[in-house]
Amino acid sequence: MTDLARQRLRIAMSALSDAIPHERRRPPLGWPGVQAWEAERAFELPEPYRTFVAEISNGTQEGPSDPHGLLALGQLPESWQLWEAECWLSPDPFDGTALRKPAVPFPLKEEWQWEYDYYDHDQHSPLLHGIYQHGSILLGSNRSCEFWILIVTGPQRGRVWWLGDGCAAPYADAEEEAEPEVDFVSWLQDWQADRGWWSQDPEDLD
């Protein structure tokens, strides 16, 4: 790691530590726990999430039942396992109980709203399943069928994405040259402060 990368990591860790009060943190997983989890899946988590889970907090106390609970590493919200066609806007069911494959690269590089595409089973079904099963870990869920993920493999590694009702999109419209680690810090700050669009009434977003 270069000196610049170390400096950026220190700044990110300070911001992440400030974002979550001590009383809301789960015990950190520790470096042996993180490294064992990575070894089992044959990939390394991106920074600063990796150090955050190892040293600060492996999720928050509220858990997946709370709209603003940060999931523990590898944890899935209960709603992930449910198939609701009106949410996914796809005639091909998504198996939320299937083993996820985070080491396989996440397939998208930019936002995709498949609700506006003519559905071609041969073309769209593998891509949709890849979006939900490959190259990411779950961070949280704000409403049924809406999830936040951290991309861990592929060109979008280190960035936070939103999955929901016929759309997959990056959390922020960052420039390609922007450092991806900023995504997780900015997202967690907004998530814990409840100041994003997810805190609004869904009817107000129409």
Describe it.
The protein is built from six helices and four strands, in the order αααααββββα. A four-stranded antiparallel beta sheet has the order 1-2-3-4. The protein is globular and about 50 Å long. With 206 residues, the chain is an alpha+beta fold. The termini are far apart. The protein has one domain (3-196). The model has no long low-confidence stretch (mean pLDDT 83).
Question: Quick recap of the structure?
Answer:
With 206 residues, the protein is α+β, with helices and mostly antiparallel strands. It is 33% helix and 11% strand.
First-residue to last-residue Cα separation: 45 Å
Number of DSSP E strands: 4
Average pLDDT figure: 83
By DSSP (H or I, 4+ residues per run), the number of helices equals 6
**CA-based gyration radius:** 17 Å
Spatial ordering of strands, largest sheet: 1-2-3-4
Shape: globular
The total tally of domains equals 1
SSE run: HHHHHEEEEH
Q: Please indicate the percent range of residues in DSSP E strands (runs of 2 or more).
A: 5-15%
Fraction of residues in H or I helices: 25-40%
Question: Structural class, from secondary structure content?
Answer: alpha+beta
**Uncertain parts:** none
Give me the secondary-structure topology.
Elements: H1 3-19, H2 30-41, H3 49-56, H4 85-88, H5 121-133, E1 136-143, E2 146-151, E3 160-164, E4 167-170, H6 181-193
Antiparallel strand pairs: 1-2, 2-3, 3-4
Helix pairs in contact: 1-6, 2-3
